[in-house]
Amino acid sequence: MELPQLFVEKMKSLLGEEYSDYEACLQRPKQSGIRVNTSKISVEEFRKIAPFEIEPVPWTENGFFVEAKDQPAKHPFYHAGLYYIQEPSAMAPAAFLPVEPGDKVLDLCAAPGGKSTELGARLKGEGLLVSNDISITRTKALLKNLEMFGISNSVIASEEPKNLVPVCYEYFDKVLVDAPCSGEGMFRKGSNEIKNWAEYGIEPYVKIQREIILDAVKMLKPGGYLLYSTCTFSPEEDEQLIEYLLHQVPELSLVDMPEADGFDRGHPEWTVSGLQDVKKCIRLWPHKIKGEGHFLALLKKEGEPAAGAEGQKRDRAKISQEAEAFLSECRMDLDPNRIKEHKGRLILTPKDLPDLGRLRVLRHGLLLGEMKKRRFEPSQVLAMALSGDGYARTLDLSLSDERLMKYLKCETILADEKEDGMYLVTVQGYPLGWGKLSKGRMKNKYAPSWRWM
């Protein structure tokens, strides 16, 4: 792997005698990892059914190292949303933001969803998650990942951060900014990252990061927490960015974070003013951990939050008899006051959802399904948000059942259940999607775009 000479010189100045260890680590294969979806299964239960060897990631309770040869994306448990495939160091930002059920949380640069899926799981269906990314293309991947995880209280938007500020001023309890950066910590991934660094350097990213972080602070409640992270080593994008932020926003202060094996602390000598508080920041170096490079800073905003504003008032949606009958068989809190209808599609909106006005929003909540002539078509997303016994009729398939792969490939399967009608299809008790049974043949309702390839 050939590194740009300017980068090599900079890293030698940062790492000193450790540079040779860093250079050697780039020759090792990248480390694979998975993160358990604790909104569907506990870590203890997952350990019992894990289909491959797993080794705990030290900095997060539900993260595990796995071998790439195990192909975790090629297992039905992945399609059931039991885990997310994620580079291990990238698990740290969401792990260190102290999210609790009921919080209003913003993931400002969210695509493709690795951190949002963890934040949503930790909310346990309470509160609100707004996941935003400026790229509409990348936001589509974010949407699918949140849907596969069964996150029912999320809003997915694609806006410039500055456009969110007027709508969400001091609205969020917790904010995550995994900022766009020069990507130095990801050079082991391949030549594209290195080529991008050689072409653009770090300066364009510093400008973007400063703009984004100041907008993020405006949307954070007094008393709330903001976690800033990058996957780069550059002090200008890390310690010096935090130094700039603390100078611009005096009501912010750094919060210490727990230690873990291989962690390094922020370096005051890499700031302009010698700011000692940056020792509370965390650096992950790829030659010290089983993972890539990352930087994390946790900040708290002083003050007391104002009384919470009420969510947008909505008229009750007009729901067809077929939709009402179907939804009545779902064992889930489907408050009719929170159901919104748009062109026949029913969406369960989160509680206290603000009026998002003309913002570009891909999803305002949980898509329940679509009302059609004399029938209701439930969504794939609704199936994923249910528990294994969350619908009146279920067809549970074991891992050894040959019908399982046929179902995931969108093929018709046979079933000897006595009652015709819609079924929630599960694998070992975990939802996969829908199927409609008629005289022993089940019409496959699995989302074609999710088909096993």
UniProtKB/TrEMBL annotation:
SUPFAM superfamilies: S-adenosyl-L-methionine-dependent methyltransferases. This is tRNA and rRNA cytosine-C5-methylase. The active site is at C231. The keyword RNA-binding applies. NCBIfam families: nop2p. One of its GO terms (molecular function) is RNA binding. One of its GO terms (biological process) is RNA methylation. Belongs to the class I-like SAM-binding methyltransferase superfamily. RsmB/NOP family. InterPro entries: Methyltr_RsmF_N, MeTrfase_RsmB-F_NOP2_cat, MeTrfase_RsmB-F_NOP2_dom, Nol1_Nop2_Fmu_2, Nop2p, RCMT, RsmB/NOL1/NOP2-like_CS, RsmF_methylt_CI. Keywords: Cytoplasm, Methyltransferase, RNA-binding, S-adenosyl-L-methionine, Transferase. S-adenosyl-L-methionine binds at C109, A110, A111, P112, G113, G114, K115, D133, D178. Residues 1-302 form the SAM-dependent MTase RsmB/NOP-type domain.
